[in-house]
Every structure is written in C-alpha cells, then in structure tokens.
Amino acid sequence: DKKKKIALYLGRINPTKGILELLEVWKALEIKNWTLLIAGISEDLFYEKNLRKIVDEMTFKKVIFLGPVYGNEKHKLLKSTDLFILPTKTENFGISVLEALAYRIPVITTKAAPWSILTKYSIGWWIENNPIDLSKAILKAINKPYSELINMGENSYSIVKEKFSWDKIANSYINKYRNLIS
Length: 182
Description:
By secondary structure, the chain is of the alpha/beta class. The chain is 51% helix and 16% strand. A six-stranded parallel β-sheet has the order 3-2-1-4-5-6, sandwiched between helices. The longest helix is centred in the C-terminal third of the chain and has 19 residues, at 146-164. The radius of gyration is 17 Å and the shape is globular.
C-alpha cells in the first residue's frame, strides 16, 4: 500500500469546473494520507484567489495548487496520481477524464459530463452534481483498499484502449459514412 496518496483535479481553473465545491467537500471530510492537487490554467484570477483563501483556512488538509502543467511534468503528475476528480457543472466530453483513465486512474465526475462508462465498467464514480454525492464518492474512493484502486485503474486502461483507440474511432467514422452513402 502506498502511504501518501494523491487526488488530482486537472483542468481550467474556472467556476464551471466545480473546484470550489470540491474544496468545500474536501475541507469537511476526514481525509488522512491523501493530498489534493489542483493543476491548470487560471481563467479567473479572482476565483482562484478565493479558492486559495479557502485552502489557507484549512487545517490539516493537504491541498496544493500547482498552476499549469505540461509535457513531462504533466506525465509525471498523472503517473503519480491515485484518483482523478472532475466535479464539473457542464462538460461536452471531458478530455481530462479520458486522459486520466488512459493513465490508469479511477475517476470521479458528475453527470454533467457524458461518462456513464465509469459506473458501467466500475472504473470510477459518475455522480449527481451535489456536495453529498461528491462526499460519498470521495469517501468510497479513499476508503477502498489500495489494491482495488489499482485494479480499477488497470480496467480503465483496458476500456480506453477498447473504446477510444484511434482504430476504433476511425472505424466508427468509416461505418457512419458507409451508412450515409448506402
């Protein structure tokens, strides 16, 4: 078992992403041996300032703002992450969810993102967009035996390869065009 575990939010620092709600839930829960990392480009400096103020007021809650991460730094961050959290209020796809799954990371996201496969294949939690469901999902994830999180991550990688590989996507488009022509 890994002693110190990492939960990650990676995306734009924007009110629509639910970071404020994530911090409020994180603050209220009894979380030990986990660090919440928040990485991404700030689109609203006033919003980010308020988020940082909340973090500064927390006691014994490990939350770190990383700012934007790219390239090898992003790769290392994703490789070291144990849980990905995107409590979004609106999302057309959520490429960061796919990226986390490809890095073998179980995901928590809301039903505002089209990721029902998280529940269907037991590779994460697809929840209603409210603090109670977010709290429950985080508690379920952090209280799982570490080996189960690892298994969820391995399964997520297999699902991504099966459903989202370029071959699969290309064949899907080819079949759609064939159906249009015939």
